[in-house]
Amino acid sequence: MNETTTSGWTVLDTAHAALRTVVRGLSDQDLARPTPCSEWNVAQVVQHAAGDQLAFASSITGEPGPGFNPFEPSGTLDGSPADLLEPCLTACAAAWATVDRDATEVAVPVPPGSLKPGTGAGAAALDAAVHAWDIAVATARPSPLAPELAGPLLAVARQIVEPLRQYGAYAAALGHTGDISVHALLCYLGRDPGWTA
């Protein structure tokens, strides 16, 4: 059994575990299912999520990033979804394991191009976790977003998401009621917590 590479950043390792779990459970039939990302099916969300994690790694290491545009995923996978995702998660975790928590900033592939280390790790985690949710609800599986993960991710989202909306990375925020952190996070990211295929 292969040992999973971890970053040492709890929020990122938790998000990676969530994404890894939902992707490992995908069947061939799942790949064409619609997702909350209205223009993408499950296969495309997997490609996008994998590419984004590799982009976070590349920003830190200077090594090559994804060989495709994560915002234009083809939906055609060469091998299983896990075969595509796992090397990207491993590279991302290994890169973040080298980041000094006391550094002033770390390079990231999102505006403004660098963030405080904790916020940067949270940004990578946000991307992984929300796409884990997308895939889970698209395939009628339980949400991988627990309040203990969603709370810290919402704090990060409030710091980084607004500039990304203009690029289409996130839809406009939705109104929500109550203090349930999972719902608050999803609505802030423009996702309907009650979405079903």
UniProtKB/TrEMBL annotation:
One Pfam family in the UniProt entry: MDMPI_N
Signal peptide from the UniProt entry: none
Limits of the Mycothiol-dependent maleylpyruvate isomerase metal-binding domain: 13-136
InterPro entries: CHP03086, DinB/YfiT-like, Maleyloyr_isom, MDMPI_metal-binding
GO terms of molecular function: metal ion binding
Organism domain of life: Bacteria
NCBIfam families: maleylpyruvate isomerase family mycothiol-dependent enzyme, TIGR03086 family metal-binding protein
Protein name per Swiss-Prot or TrEMBL: TIGR03086 family protein
Organism: Actinomadura darangshiensis
